Amino acid sequence: MISSSRAMRCAVSVDPGEFMPQLDIDPSSNRPAYARWLRHSNDITQQFLAIGGMADFISLGGGLPAAELYPLKAIQSATERALSHWGTQALEYGPVEGLPALRDAIAQRMSKRLKGRFTSDNVIITSGAMQSLEIIGKVLIDRGDCVVTQHPTYVGALDAWRAREPTYVPLDWRDRQGTLCSDLRQSKFVYAVPNYSNPTGVLVPTSERVHLLACAARAGVWVLEDDPYCALHYDGPAEPALMTLDCAGLGGGAYAGPVIYLGTLSKSIAPGLRVGWALADASMIRMLTLAKMASDLSGSMFSQAVAWQLLQDDIESSHCVRIVSAYRERRDALCAQARAELSEWFEWEVPPGGMFVWMRARDPRIDTDVLYRFAKEEKVAFVPSSVFYHAGQLNNAMRLNFTRGAPAQLREGVSRLARAVRRYLNNHA
């Protein structure tokens, strides 16, 4: 339930202790304390990345693509040709905004995909979409500022903004109470992942997207659209992007609206490229450039040159056909095994796209923060729901990833998780 009290609706972030990093300093060292925001952080991302490298563990936790499906030969070929084309320029520092040719390529690509008009002035290249989130926080969030965001929401966004100490209001897509416009007037921006949201896998209907844009226009706030999963659709195409809907109401000039659109090659080609982008009004791009300059001075021209070559070769289109087929099979395998072994204790919807299944506990005894410890003992991992809430308010759900493992591995992972649930409930009878 959303409280009508602003003080309660905008609570400062606090995460549960199970996933908090160890920050204690030896009192005999006489060293200054770590920054206080770290005490409200979590290390769940470090945990599932580490677990993913353990041979005897099955991780259903990470939001990771399937490594065995990366287009290795295409990337090898693109690397050789990119170095031949760009020479030492690919090994230098480069413009803060990114390799100009790649910015042009992204502008052209997004103009076609989003049905708008974008130039390189509307594009900044970042180290994955995560850096976009981090520098947007620098540009828009002062301590105590309010952000309207989906709940549950992407843990990476919460982590990126944690040091800014924002407050949060849950985004109500359906707006049954009619409070969305007033919520937005309190905020600096709204953060949304409408296509196969992380962590829930939800595909937001077009009507609710249109309503959000209308409320944002009336409130005069920025709209941050994170769209990393748009190519991963298994049961029909995604809905029109918020940026597409906004462009439809604008004239023929270069984009100058309120939507900031985040894209990435991490899910559609390979995360190791670390190539993402923000697409926005040119004035916002200039502000993001100033913020990025203080983060890394220059992104990797080498990775950006390789990414440019991959886009020239249109590798993404052919590769997505392959991974969508494989991921659909994996999603179906995990959900079928879950129906056989977990449906007594959890409920979920089969996601139409993306990378995740969001499971909600039927049994009120289940606390997924505690269940996580039992799961690790069974050598399986998931992500508890508490880390997807800014104050750790929910502990009766969990996120499972189906893209990283082969079907047989996913089935075994679900079986291990079922054993963990039985042991947990036997210990909490």
Would you write up a description of this structure?
There is one protein chain. By secondary structure, this protein is α/β, with parallel strands linked by helices. Helix content is 41%, strand content 12%. It folds into 2 domains: 16-71 and 318-427, Alpha-Beta Complex (Aspartate Aminotransferase, domain 1); 88-315, Type I PLP-dependent aspartate aminotransferase-like (Major domain) (Aspartate Aminotransferase, domain 2, 3-Layer(aba) Sandwich), CATH 3.40.640.10. It has 14 helices and 13 strands. The strands form 3 sheets. The chain has a 7-stranded mixed beta sheet with strand order 2-8-7-6-5-3-4, with helices on both faces. A 4-stranded antiparallel beta sheet has the order 9-10-13-12, covered by helices on one side. A two-stranded parallel ribbon has the order 1-11. A hairpin with an 8-residue loop joins strand 9 and strand 10. The model is unreliable at 1-17 (pLDDT under 50).
Summarize this structure briefly.
The chain is an alpha/beta fold. Helix content is 41%, strand content 12%. α9 (242-248) links the parallel β6 (222-226) and β7.
